[in-house]
Amino acid sequence: PLEVCRNGVKAIAAFQEELQRIKVSVAPRYKLALVGGTHSGKTQLKHSLNGDLNVPTTPSNFLDISTMTFHSGTLLDTVVYDFGGNSLYHFSQQFFFTENCLYLLVVNLCEYKDSTFWNDVGFWINIILARVPSACMCIIGTHVDQCSESEIEGRCLNIHRQISKMFRNKKTKSHLLSIANSMEELLQESSVATSVPSPSSPTRRTKYFQNSQNRLLSAIQPVSLAEDQRGVKHIQDLIPHLYSNVQLFPINCLTVHKTWVHLENMIKERQEMLFISLEDFHVMAAIAGVPKRQREEVLQWLGDRGSVLYLGNNPYLRKYVIPTSMNISKLFNSLYNHVLRVEAEQQSTLQPNNTPSTIQQMTDELLQNGVVSPFLLHAVLQEAALIEPQEVVTRFLCDLGMFFPIPYHTRHNASMGQEETSQQDTIGKDLVSFSVPWFRHKLGSQTGLRLTLPYYHTTVQTETLQIKCCMWHFCPPGLFERFTATIHPHIVHRMDVSNSCIVYRGKVPVLVELKTSQDLTCILLTTKLTQVNTWSAWQAVVPLVKELCALLEEWPGMLQSLHIVCPHCLQQGAAEPHEFPG
Asked: DSSP secondary-structure letter at 122?
């Protein structure tokens, strides 16, 4: 307050100390996420839960965020995240899967088949539990008004059996523990003494799987979204009941320091911003009177309430505190809507006189080659109505690993006339386009191609240095694409295709590959070394491995490990070369 500031620094310090002693009651706020495939009825279910029965159905976006209030003795304020089901969205939706959130997995029982289990159920269970191992999930079966009672019972039973099979088929904790324990034994036998293990080390991961618990509710809740609204009232009563369970949601903190509430109100005043830097957050916390020892705790509290989105599990994203998910969802909605709109227009029959617009042709370049021109990005940001400069937004998206900068080329804006193109050649020298590996992968450009390391013309004997990252049973969508984008600042030249790329660290080429099998996905980093350039080869690979480990930190529920592949086995062409954990 101004009257306190007038009395000097000592008065301000005394005022903040007094605030620390004052605690206030705060109404809890919860998070509810609706996930599932396309046409599963997520948005209809959201409107039914909110009592809005006459809301017209609109095409789903990447993410729609709204608020809802449940009545159960007391009013429970809830932030609702309605995720779109298009597989193109999977890359960016992972950032919004957070702890202390109730996940409703919505399945269209009318269209469900045994063959669609993975897309409708299995994928969502795996990605959520890999990202948030302690997540509480409940399966909702919709469109039961279009099914007979026997069909409902049979399809629910099929989902139960498939889930049990999925966890039993080499995905149970005992299997995960056996792998982790064997890795731990190998490390203990090693003569290399290790200090405090990293979060991704087998020691930490073994303890994690021993302590983790599955919170997937077994009963499938049948719901009709027609006029009878069968089962909706039961879901409206079930959600507050789950929120009141302190074992599932230990966030019923009704009394907090007044300074925390003051800080939350200050953050609400910056909701028009895409993000707040961590330095600015600490400044705001100091102004609000929150001491340093409490700031990590208050950041967790704000995240549990849905007031901020903080990606602190990635060391390269900890500098961003997103005051609300609204603006970042608007950014992704605008970008994906551009892509899907032009992709739909491409699939339809165009009249001969229909000449695509400039934005459409630039989006064609995105669809064909995964390239975002600066002009298309400008149009996307205008549609999202963000206040940040374009350079700030692109730096943020690069840190997320969505894309990386490449030199601007006039073909990225090929629809311009000759006079405009010549003028653009001069302007384009200062412009930067961006490559989006995820779009290049999803839209099928350059599929089937695979790169190999260049041949070494030397009389010195060469060996292969290969680092192998193994992910069992499930690999998150876009992990490899994010990795190829985040390593860009470390390299001087690159060549990319769908599932592999060659990057140059100085003069040392490194082949980065993605290989998948039925139950195992591997990311391989391979380079050649000789007795002369051994140190250079390791210097080229290690920074890339650190970037990969930073991404793996975001998936604590996924079992992964790093191995060094035996170079002698590789040189001899062994079918199953030895691997050393490290």
From this structure: I
- Which residues are within 8 A (CB) of 168 and not within 5 positions of it... i.e. 6 or more apart? none
Tens of pLDDT along the chain (582 residues) come to 676 777 788 777 777 776 666 777 788 889 999 999 988 999 999 999 988 877 777 777 889 999 999 887 778 899 999 999 898 899 999 999 998 899 999 999 999 999 999 999 999 999 999 999 889 999 999 999 999 999 999 999 999 999 888 877 655 544 554 555 555 555 555 544 443 344 444 444 444 444 444 678 878 899 998 888 889 999 999 999 898 888 888 765 677 888 889 999 999 988 889 999 999 999 999 988 888 888 898 999 999 888 999 988 888 889 999 987 788 988 998 888 887 876 666 665 444 444 455 556 666 666 667 788 888 888 888 888 888 898 999 999 999 999 899 876 555 444 333 334 444 444 445 567 888 888 877 655 554 556 677 655 555 677 889 999 998 888 999 999 999 999 999 998 888 887 888 999 888 899 999 999 888 899 999 998 877 678 888 899 999 999 999 999 999 888 888 889 998 898 888 888 888 876
Q: How far apart are CA 456 and CA 461, in angstroms?
A: 10
Q: Which residues contact 542 (CB under 8 A, 6 or more apart)?
A: none
C-alpha 483: how far from chain center: 12
Q: How many CB atoms lie within 10 A of CB 515?
A: 13
Question: What residues are paired with 70 via a beta bridge?
Answer: 76
| 3-state secondary structure at position 479 | helix
Matching residue, tokens 């932030």: 79
Query: Which residue type, as a one-letter code, is found at position 248?
Result: L
pTM of the predicted model as reported, rounded to 2 decimal places: 0.84
Q: Which two tokens stand for residue 522?
A: 């591997």
- d(C-alpha 176, C-alpha 240), whole Å: 34
Q: Round to whole Å and give the CA distance between 440 and 446.
A: 8
- Tracing tokens 């405090």 back to the chain, one arrives at 196
CA distance 7 to 549: 51
Question: Would you give the DSSP letter of residue 245?
Answer: -
Record the tokens describing residue 563, joined without a space: 């191995």
Which is it for strands 29-35 and 74-83: parallel, antiparallel or unpaired?
A: parallel
DSSP 480-502: HHHHHHHTGGG-SEEEE-SSEEE
Provide the terminal-to-terminal Cα distance of the chain, rounded to the nearest Å.
Answer: 55
